[in-house]
User: Fold these one by one.
Assistant:
Number 1:
Amino acid sequence: MDQEGLLYIWKKRGEKMRASNELRTLLKSIDHKGYPAYKDTAGEWRFPNYILFIDHVQGDPFASPSSLRVQLPCQATGLPEVYYREDCSRIALQDFLVRQLSKQFEQYNFKAKGSGKSGLLSISHCGQEVLPRSACEIVNGTLIVRFYTGFPAFGRTINAGELEKILFEFLPRCIENSLFYKNLDQKKLERAIFLAEDQAELRKLLKEEGLVAFVANGAVLPRKSGVSELPLSGSVPFVSPASMERTLVLPHRKEVKGMGIPRGVTLIVGGGYHGKSTLLEAIQAGVYNHIEGDGRELVITDDSAVKLRAEDGRSVRNVNISLFINDLPDKKDTTVFTTADASGSTSQAAGVVESIEAGSSLFLIDEDTSATNFMVRDEFMQQVIVREKEPITPYIERVRDLYEKAGISTIMVAGSSGAFFHIADHILLMDCYHAEEITEHVKELCKERTDFQLRAHKFALPEFKRVLPAYKRAEGGRHGGRGHGADKTSRYEHMKVKASGLESFSLDKENINVRYLEQLADSEQTMALAYFLRYALEQVQDGRRTVQETVKQIMDTFDKKGWDAFAGSYVPCGLALPRVQEVFACLNRFRG
């Protein structure tokens, strides 16, 4: 449908809605009544430049704020159609608009007075990453913006005059200043769109050039602090070793030089505090696009990459870890291994296999967060503890086969064992944050030491046929379930969800720990995982689908129906799309 046709439909639709002056009249009629009278404001209201949806009204001024939504045709905003034609630019545009509206809301937040959350105006607080969010979507030529508002009251008595101020003064100004092209910093928006298109081209070039990661010269990798993702001022800009430097041509920045890490096994070494982990952390963050000024805008990584680590105490269910662990003293079957309390080595072995199941073609490993006995056994230990007495096949003995037979590359930070030098295709030395390739020099040294085994026998990837058990409805109907006649609310909203930052989320009374999923970048992704898991339990998990089929169903549903498929009666602000790999990881950590 062309833009003129869409505008016509919007006009006809708006004529059937209650006008904004009716909302103003309603507010005057409920002024000074009990707070529940605010429920009458729920619904659709026609304003001059947009339609306002009041999707959910909070129960009292101290409860979670009300959920509101604004919709209008993109053509009415004046935003260039070319900016939302392709996925990469559309996501960047949505991100840009959220950031602009957030700045506007800061000027009016709590300017309307009252008790509790009265006067709150908020939308998603975006970090350094550019993520698809429920806060702003462009769907079929329509701009949808979701946000929160605290409906004002004194005590628990409605203060309608203050809400009228929010809805008829503050909000229209914020919408006008942040969503209409004529009022935006058009050059800044253009740069954001161009950057997204360059990043998309870089991801395409990775595959064409046989690379798993690219780190541009001049990139600022260190972060401001352990609790801030802002770039560290005064840090040493990254410069590629000459032997690994690649020149890539992008649509807008034209030629960009930087370090290309080829497929295979790459080792990052160096002294403590010289930048090894900083480089790896930048690479692991490169699965996402970053905003202008982040310093890592052109640090781009294979978007299936998974950071592996030990996770003592995590649950593992029916995972075939026999590639790494066999012949346990208690005779436990490691081809369908289950434990509620995994060790460091067992959890890391499970993480490798689960990540293969999730489709990863690049593993990122930091020795500091790995189980030592899972990673390597030196030659002396191999002499003292004979192979027949050791159930663990260390990662070092599988890493070559993972690449050569399964196409899975590895980038690893190591500092404790020289054995890793023997299995690496490329070796990077970090010295005071300067990178140097030392592969040829180290390979010459390796020729003098070949007295221990570096490759285990019988490499074979497991078949991935794990089936999730069917979700069982609790007795008494408390959980609604998928039974006949279950309505939309019972299907989607009976299982209460709550996220705790990047640490965990809860589904009813069960807590799912995601703190070690280091590539989760935003707490809104954690909340989205909770919604996805709830959907999987109630709509997908039937006792027949495999884990892979379940995740595919989730992601296909999102692609076709968006957030509406997962949210129930209304889509809230505050959801950000996680990667497929984190959806797999979430299912794997669910104990229920």
Note: The two ends are 46 Å apart (CA to CA).
Number 2:
Amino acid sequence: MEREGTTFHPSILNTVLGPITLGPSSSHLAGPVRLGLLARSIMGFNLEKAEVCFNEGGSFAATYKGHRTDCAFVSGLLGWDTKNLKIPQVFDEVKALGLDVEVKTEPYQGSHPNVVIFRGEGQNQKIEIIGASEGGGAVSIFEIDGFKTNIDGNYPTLFIVMDDPLFASGVLEFVNDLVKKPRISLQEEKAITLELNRCLSQEELQKISNHQHVLSVYQADPVFIVPKSGASRKPYFTSSKEILKLAEDSGKKLWEIALSYEMNRLGLNKAEIFENLDEMISVMKQSLSRGISEELTFSGGIAKQGGRRLFEAYKEGKTVSSGTLPRATAYAMAVNEVSASLGLIVAAPTAGACGVIPGAIFSVVEEMEFEVPEEVFYHALLSAGAIGAVFAQKATFLAEYCGCQVETGIASGMAAAAIVEMKGGTVGQALDAASITMQNILGMECDPVAGLMEVPCITRNALGTLNAIMSAEIVLAGVDSVIPFDEVIDATYETGRFRPLQCNGTGGLAITPTSKKLEKMQK
């Protein structure tokens, strides 16, 4: 069965544990920034006028104001990345630059919930680019000026339009003389999409443009860590069954299998991968520190800051439970509240679920008092990444397709596996913990109140962290998951994708009278 939203061979650093981004949403903010960056490089001219159009029946149209999706897309058009703290104020920059930018909604005939249509003008040129945010910061451009394409930002990519498809082989041969072994990503009638091993210079692009059968040529610069020469296009594993086989054959731990996966995927060495993880750990620590020590202002302001209050109650001995659980809950809420206040976080695997993994691993590290916590963090994040990599290949991180079970839910499963690894459990136990965790939240709706990532998202991060810790405890005590993790992923996808009501914020808590009232107050 072909599944919408799945990712072939996802990178753990790029789209499973990343990106590092401003909140509140990786699919509604980080993804649109990257779409804007791709559009900026594709158009290749100085922008003077632009239209950013969201499908009036899609998810963006309902939530873009609260999520700052309009700000995100325009930030990308200006060349800003997902970490830029000025994203919420980007229209001040637009005004200062004298750009003519209009954001609107319009009908679009397509099933994808996160479609954006960009129309740009400048230097006597016009272009229309259509793309989508695929969840967790992953993106795709699938149409340029009416021609189909396939650009995901992982590689330097050429898009060439010809006057006659009969001359495609000649055009490809000409390109091959400039850059060796271009890979055909998509060939449709008069258009060819090619993935390259490097970006071409303006002089080289002009040579292709001057070819007698080429009408136009566009280059899309990558927006992710680009695989090095020698990286494999074949995934090191695609299922939990394959992970178990690798563990049995090699004796490797889960984090080591994940490390091999990412070395295979990006061609990076261990030190380079750990360097990227260092930045993620640093941002997680900063967001946790902010969440439990600062007074935050949420983008919508419909919820009260709870993580800091709970942490203070825990320190004062006023919580019902003691030890790891209330601390982990407070940490998870605190990190997600930084996201809700448009602060910098790690979308692991999404911004909506960004509190679960740090809430779990930081509290467990404090509880166990490891001698070298830096190594423990590396191992924990890689173990979580292995679970997320399998999930992305078999399901999706896009809640608009399958509900919050593929955001907070899988974040919980990733965290549970990380905890098992931290406690010295086996690879099989880590997979069982992920399986049980996902079983516990099967069917969870995506239903942000008033279109904001505050209610119930923040408290669901708390639930996700508790779910992860308790599932790990259950497995480490000797309880097996009856249903294998691969089968649980299948059930998760089918539960979400084939329900009568789709998970795009149009059901559940999002349609309660209070939510509708709050939504009107936001306008």
Note: The two ends are 41 Å apart (CA to CA).
Number 3:
Amino acid sequence: MKIPLNDKMIKQIGSAQFFMLRYETEFTPCTGITAVTKQERRNFKRGIMIAPWCSKLKREKPQDDPIQNGKVKATDWKFKVNGLPCRVLASTDEFAPILFLEVKGRFEGVETPYDIPLPQLREDTLWFALAVDELLKQVASPQQFVWAADWETVPAMVLARARHHVSLTLHNTFDECLVNEIKPFGKTFSLFGSERKNDGVKTALEIGMELADVVTTVNRGFAYGMLSEAIQTRVMAAHLQPVMGRVVGINNAAFARVSDSLLAFKQRLIDDPLEGRKELFKTQAEARKLLPAEIAGKCADKVIIISMGRRVAQKLHDVMVESTRQILRKDKNFPILVVFSTVHGDSGSPARLERMLALQKEFPDNVVCTDGRIAYYSDLMRSADYNCMPSLYEPHGGAYEGTVIPIARAVDGLAEQICGLDPKGEAERMNDLWHPSNEAPSGFLFREGGKTTAGRVKDLAALLSESPSPNNKLFKEMTSALSEVLLQAVDLRLKHPNQYAELVLAAIEKQEGSSWEVNLGGMLALIEEAKLKRSLKHNHEKTKIPM
């Protein structure tokens, strides 16, 4: 069959090693996975990405619409999916191509690809699976493997498994049961009605993790956390514990290319530490002058700490809010400027924003709160001393950017990435788990103590589900632990500039040391190992999952 695409695209499809099934991309963005898929496209040259096309997705500006600006174009490749028309769109840049599948009446999120009623989202994953299956039947060969990601792509992975080796990468442990949505499709998705030995119907991830030839996650620390952190073992992923032993952690690399100028600055810090420090602080001061007047006017002689990201329970911005309040109520002249640079996250986002705004109102000279993407983001990051991430859990987290030093809760991917300076208590234990004693510190880690009691699990569940975060015992312990580290970090920046510059040097080296090529190499090695374990010659028979 002739595929109605340009010759370059046809050649790329034919020579591809794998097809990446992703539910969001840089052209259909939502979470941190967007940043991951952007880098996958730039580094995994022999991959083809397949994603749903969300035609109703709202854009901030008309020129941001990838159809209008020409970054995505419709092809004349069309086919039917269970009676519904489907057309294929394609990215037009020089990176690994994205084939977008537009099924009539499906994938109608407005704010994000997931911004639809949950039953409809579950149905959409099945329609996506059917569309992917038809596309692969037309163009893919058995030598190409299919690389799924998260629960939304598991149905497509399951259909592909009869003809291809398949892998599944977890960016989180969000999960759904599809038993109610499979009924209109007959026996096509009958596996998603399978029951556990003891009770209940298996979820998408349970099935996907059992059937995938390879199961990975985006950070070694998260692979550890899935089996050891109570938020996973007792709250989010208790049902997945029997299959968690299959998960292999392969670290993501930096979410942006490390610039030549940053590497040159790193070398100046090494060759002439004194001049390097002067350049560092001069650059910060110059960047502060470029900030909007309402921020620049508050910067003088203060340490700038950024708290950024989507306003969702995972990010625990509320802990940063209350830690800042605790410090400033004790000393209203404390030399700190906290900038909350956050964007809407979920239904609890407005309540989290109100908590930030209340702090700004109480301490207008020390707190700035923005809502939505800001045009001066790069200047803000160049001006900042620290970036604080008090996450409830964090699969990877992208701890580093430029010369900004991370302050983070010692959990999952953050603990694996950041070697803490003089951590205490549970933070020290986590630091010792991932970092040898001779590793140069590259940031600050904090962590509340305490055993995993029933009360603690209840508090964790509340922090995950309520907005703003309830002021429970665990929340107070987190706030107290972060407050101590914030005081330590500010003191270091103001009184020990040499040591601060050493942290900056180590942070740059951390960014330089990560590699997407190594990331891909790990997956390819696992797939080659899997090919030795599973022959495809019998896979045209009905797939059965272990019961």
Note: Residues 473-495 form the longest helix (23 residues).
